[in-house]
DNA sequence: AATGCGGGGTT
DNA sequence: AACCCAGCATT
């Protein structure tokens, strides 16, 4: 009956299914011993879990914790009711510096939906959770498992890496079939454990601390003996990155005795955020003199930001979207970091003013 | 399937 | 400079 042990990559799927119980047991044991202590792991309050998950979307734990975003938010808006009752500017102000401000607006909206449509109680049904604003497959699974202990799968960047290595699976993790396989596998695992909460946390934390993108510490891995990866560092496979496009952006700087002129975005993106006002199109052929030139990256763009002197006559009236902001109100205003940095440099070089 | 959304950290 | 990070929504 015994046959020669096949090479790792040739092993078949059934072995994985049978190993799910053993694999998850080892992960949970490891996590109970080594798992880190985060504020959102000390509670099962859906609101507290939700806030952490939204803040952590595409944002590293250290950013959320070390700069005090989570603690300040929970102090200012301790529950759905207080958040729902807050104004949008209060909400955006509390999010200032975290980026992806759409998350804050969705969270605000979500709180209002909970109060108005769910009697102030967060729903327990994963499908209902998934339908709330700003909540996708990952966050729905995270809240279902972390807050309610339900056996719902999650796949984030960490887990995609861990699972593709465990199964030695080179299907691109950002392709439709790759995504499906990851979620199927994550579901299989979470249904094989009696502690979905610990299992989901363990998978993420394994990816964060052991099964790292580069130089994974396989010697320290609690599930090394379950892992089929031949060359862990070559996984996961991802599709090509979009090409970087260079973009020019021109704004201007006006300071009066009443403050700095800023423009509030009103379009479909960056709505509600403040920025240095755009240089009107008619001035872009022969722009006023340059006060500052800087570059920043945003998604697939490399933006060269030029800050110019005031175009035209400074006595003109400005559109509804523009406002003179007193200096002492600047720091609480939600403003994308590139503009904030530029503004700080402009004010510093003027010598007499400082932000904060 | 692609793209926009921001920012910061690591290598 | 490239890559990564507790993703989601829109098109």
UniProtKB/TrEMBL annotation:
Pfam entry (one): HHH
Which organism encodes this protein?
Answer: Brevifollis gellanilyticus
Q: Which cofactor does it need?
A: [4Fe-4S] cluster
Report any one BP term from Gene Ontology: base-excision repair
* First-level EC class: hydrolase
User: Per its database record, what is this protein's job?
Assistant: Adenine glycosylase active on G-A mispairs. MutY also corrects error-prone DNA synthesis past GO lesions which are due to the oxidatively damaged form of guanine: 7,8-dihydro-8-oxoguanine (8-oxo-dGTP).
Its ancestry begins with: Bacteria, Pseudomonadati, Verrucomicrobiota, Verrucomicrobiia, Verrucomicrobiales
InterPro entries, per database record: DNA_glycosylase, Endonuclease-III-like_CS2, HhH-GPD_domain, HhH_base_excis_C, HhH_motif, MIG/MutY, NUDIX_hydrolase-like_dom_sf
What is the protein name for this chain? Adenine DNA glycosylase
